[in-house]
Amino acid sequence: MTQQRKYFGTDGIRGKVGDYPITPDFVLKLGWAAGRVLGNKQHRRRVLIGKDTRISGYMLESALEAGLSAAGMHVRLLGPMPTPGIAYLTRTFHASAGIVVSASHNPFQDNGIKFFSHEGFKLPDEVELAIEAEMDKPMTTVAAKELGKAKRIDDAAGRYIEFCKSSISTHLSLTGLKLVVDCAHGATYHIAPNVFLELGAEVIRIGAQPDGLNINQGCGATHTETLQAAVQEHQADLGIALDGDGDRLMMVDSQGREVDGDEILFIIAKARQQSGKLSGPVVGTLMSNFGLEQAFKELNIPFLRAKVGDRYVIELLRKHQGLLGGESSGHIICLNHTTTGDGIITALQVLAIMVQGAKTLQELCMGMEKCPQQLINVALPQKQEVLNTDAVRKAVAAAETELAGQGRVLLRPSGTEPLIRVMVEGRDITQVKTLATSIADTVHALVKEN
User: Fold this and answer.
1) Which entry of 56, 104, 288, 328 is annotated as an active-site residue?
2) How far apart, in whole angstroms, are the C-alpha atoms of residue 74 and residue 235?
3) Is 167 among the catalytic positions?
4) Could you report the per-residue pLDDT of 326-375, keeping only the tens digit for each?
5) CA nearest 367: which of 278, 440, 301?
6) What's the N-to-C CA distance of the chain in angstroms?
7) Regions in the chain scoring below 70 on pLDDT
8) Which 3 state secondary structure label does DSSP give 71?
9) Are 326 and 265 in contact (CB under 8 A)?
């Protein structure tokens, strides 16, 4: 049985700034504990720290730096840097680990800390547990002559820009394409527009003026309305929306229609299959649209579903020797290029497919029809085991019978809130809504009984 983690969630440690554990004293000790564990595990004694643009990043970066130094680890500060850029630079600097100060798509009031191993992957459970065990010990400091030094890496952005460009053919040009790029006032603001500009595209920047407080505010991958309007206003070929830390991508076609992670995954998988470069199964999640599964079935592309979270997508890809996976939310993992979700690299894969096939984004989406989906959240006043009851099982079985293989039902507890998520997908929106409501009512009645 896996030991329960005390601080780490599926994507590091996250919370509201100033509330435990996102406090300077906790993060100071976290840096020290991580330094103790990682310093013992690796011969290297170097750790990279990067952050997004939220104002609390200054405070948390400094706390981590002090804790790591006290443990005898040398620190390399990257400044504002996308999460996938930190994963890449951790590998190229041969560092013990990379640390990201970010709360991804959350508002500026939140922040978090997540770690990459020296290979650029999320830390294994046993290393996170070892760090947590160290947190329970009194903090000590190495001898003065063994304290770690800190140094800023001035060319980090340029290094990562070149890495992104290297993910597509050197002969490929984006000249003639007009792109609107929304950086969510986040960590890609000084990187993403330059990648596309250097490859020849005309770029209109939005969400590229961070002030520490506006990250993800009405913009980026979680709020594409501004981008959709801008694409139509500028008569652009497409729009690219990244989130605050740059590991998610949503796109917008020339008509202003949102293209989500499922459709992006379909575009890349189909193109790779046609070119004979698709290796292993494609991995989605429990939340991937049923239409994606059906489209892959018609193309004879093997498809697996992981638990929700890019961490689990990567685990399943590595287990089954796959190279391509992702989530509806826009985390797309191309393991032949990098070790984590990367919004810029994913956008480049789609742009390369467009240019090489002389097709629009709309045309590339053809062949996949998203099924209508209804998601209902049922609040739980306390932790209750309602999913394994006869009443819920019967309600689910009845819905599945009615869908007759042309849809699916998913019930799962939320990982972050006291909720049961009831999701139904199918071909007919009226049927989907009716079935979802019926199941949610059954769950709600059981909650009230208890």
Assistant:
1) 104
2) 49
3) no
4) 999 999 999 999 999 999 999 999 999 999 999 999 999 999 999 999 99
5) 301
6) 29
7) 1-3, 40-43, 382-384, 415-416, 450
8) coil
9) yes
